[in-house]
Design brief:
The chain is built from 3 helices and 3 strands; from the N terminus they run E-H-E-H-E-H. It has 71 residues and is of the alpha+beta class. The chain has one domain: UreE, C-terminal domain (Alpha-Beta Plaits). The chain has a 3-stranded antiparallel sheet with strand order 1-3-2.
């Protein structure tokens, strides 16, 4: 798996996951428990992971919908 997106904004994370699921791209959200443990004050970002084979398509889907992705 490869990191596609990282954010502390839960709304953007939910939107990104919905976009990928709509494109039939499997994704996995990491660091959810750490985010909950820190009290949801936004210190620890959540990461969205996708398979290596789906990375390019997933990246294009998010970029086409206005997401800013780290290089």
């Amino acid at each position: 798996m490869r990191q596609l997106y990282r954010t502390t904004d839960m709304a953007n994370m939910a939107f990104a996951k919905a976009l990928l699921q709509g494109e039939d791209i499997d994704c996995f959200e990491m660091d959810v428990n750490m985010s909950v443990l820190e009290g949801s004050i936004g210190i620890f970002p959540r990461r969205l992971m996708v398979g290596e084979d789906d990375f390019d398509a997933a990246r294009a889907a998010l970029l086409d919908n206005g997401f800013s992705l780290e290089e």
